[in-house]
Design brief:
Shape: globular
Strand order of the largest sheet: 7-8-9-6-10
Distance between the termini: 58 Å
Strand content: 15-25%
Structural class: alpha+beta
Helix content: 10-25%
Number of strands: 12
Order of helices and strands: EEEEHHEHHEEEEEEE
Largest sheet: 5 strands, antiparallel
């Protein structure tokens, strides 16, 4: 004999996971999993130096790479972010070529510099995801717009992705890697913002409020970065064409 469920009980809705920071979107699946607070593949060393994160016991801390995880996402939502992590890794590799863009791996001859295309949307999603990770490990609730954008859903509010640069100017590439900057302040910026990170030498800020009181040059959604070489320009192009449209322009 087959015991049929009552019509109102089938199909049964899956309950969101209380520890998953994306549970507001629904569709939580599987157990809670260890999420790398910053993508593990971005680091070659066995330890990571973190500055300014609110959950640190001091201003700086060096943490083992394999231990830099926290149980903050369910398996279902975690699996949906693999392409986001891969794009951040591709941008990091492209920026590492800036010092010598004509030398390719496994090549003994100089070649014209490449033109590398990066999905600005995927990298923006990575920024939002990383911001949500940092908030979650410090027991704070991420703004829903960042959660929505991280999973390619239309955000409630507009999100600005500011790069510390201006049109026609050279971006300064330094030696800092993935240093979290607790807001505020960032030197030269008086406005309150939500999250900033030094990514392979680039200072990048995300916020749901437009920054207008500037002492430094910022550009929202950088379209291209180019570096002059004897054999032409080395270019990194950002494509933002497929990003989700915000529900509100406020």
């Amino acid at each position: 004999m087959i015991n049929m469920k009552k019509k109102e009980d089938w199909p049964r809705k899956r309950k969101p996971h209380s520890k998953c920071w994306a549970n507001v979107l629904g569709q939580c699946k599987g157990p809670i999993t260890g999420e790398h607070i910053i993508t593990k593949a971005l680091f070659n060393k066995t330890s990571i130096r973190v500055d300014g994160a609110p959950w640190l016991k001091g201003p700086k801390m060096e943490i083992g790479r394999s231990a830099f995880t926290s149980n903050i996402l369910c398996k279902g939502h975690n699996n949906k972010l693999s392409d986001v992590d891969n794009e951040a890794v591709q941008l990091s590799k492209a920026l590492c070529l800036v010092k010598n863009p004509m030398n390719r791996p496994n090549s003994n001859i100089l070649q014209p510099p490449p033109e590398i295309k990066i999905s600005g949307t995927l990298f923006g999603r990575w920024m939002c995801k990383t911001h949500c990770n940092f908030l979650s490990v410090s027991d704070q609730t991420p703004e829903i717009s960042y959660i929505q954008y991280a999973f390619a859903e239309r955000p409630k509010k507009s999100i600005f992705f500011y790069f510390a640069a201006k049109e026609g100017a050279k971006l300064k590439i330094g030696d800092e890697h993935y240093k979290y900057i607790q807001p505020p302040p960032v030197e030269g910026i008086d406005s309150v913002y939500d999250f900033a990170i030094i990514f392979s030498g680039l200072v990048i800020i995300i916020t749901t409020s437009q920054i207008t009181n500037l002492k430094v040059a910022l550009i929202d959604r950088l379209k291209a970065f180019q570096f002059s070489t004897p054999l032409g320009f080395y270019k990194i192009l950002f494509d933002w064409a497929d990003e989700p449209t915000p529900l509100s322009r406020q």
